[in-house]
Specification:
Helix content is 43%, strand content 20%. Helix 7 links the parallel strand 6 and strand 7. The two termini are 26 Å apart.
Amino acid sequence: MGFTCGIVGLPNVGKSTLFNAITAAGADASNYPFCTIDPNIGVVIVPDNRLNRLTDIYNPAKTVPTAIEFLDIAGLVKGASKGEGLGNQFLAHIRLVDAIAHVVRCFDDPNVVHVDGSVNPQRDIEVIETELILKDLETVDKKLAEAERRAKSSDKKARAEAEFYERIRMHFGSGRLARYFAIQGDEESVWMRDLHLLTRKPVMYVCNVHERDLHADNAYVTTVREIAAREDARVVVVSAAVEAEVSELPENERAHFLQGLGLEESGLNKVIREGHDMLHLVTFFTAGPKEVHAWTVERGTAAPQAAGIIHSDFERGFIRAEIMAFEDLNRLGSEAAVKERGLLRIEGRDYTIQDGDVVFFRFNV
């Protein structure tokens, strides 16, 4: 699995339409709030032309792409942190994901009712983020109370921990998300990790626009970009309606359809690319006559740990990694040609897996 992305936003912003388009999972996209009560889950293949090229070179019996799992989390509303609109249930689902795609309505349509009566991206973003902050504040308050009880018994570490939680509370009080909180030292990193805060998760804003606004930002998208710039966040502009049309076409007709609209890629590709980059992920490959397989790991992963993604025995008995760069294999056309040119590298335990590496792991258990 590549990563898990939760799709959040107010009701009727296009979340379920987008989810249906990119996963073909058939979620109910009816025009009324709370049509999605449980998170719909869909797994979609990550498109990668490198995998196609490796399949051509090796002609394997099987090709396995990496994938992204999407959770369509029902629409949040003001008061969700207190249970409004089944909010507590929905907020709990967000804890399951690696990243959040926050869908923001950036189109006008009198036939699609807005839960707050008008389209206003800044207000909509603030509603969602406020509810996430309030939910995180509950979590921090519980931890603070526990630390303060321990501090009464002259536990110096507990006092330091309580002060840490107090700083987070002050941070939340200024309306800032946890991912912008300044952590000081390894101990605070552990405390923060153990909180599992919703607002610590990386976020991309997905601006859902009308087809006519895909080539130039409208005023709503401009507002979202200004907000994202202040938060150092990412923005992806898509049209859920266009994505729905693309999803209904045969695979071999999709590129032509997008070209007809003046688009180089689908909204799904944009979300995946930004998501991979946001989570610092890279893709490496294993290849042979039996199988060509794409694997996703965090950037900076050492070779033995990457081997462990395939099988724990590979990590436990790791000897070395034999590596070809995809660019070399693509250019020369065969593994034999890469070896003849002396471009196959032997790497040990300290090697960090790079995006596009084609790897054969040697191990012994």
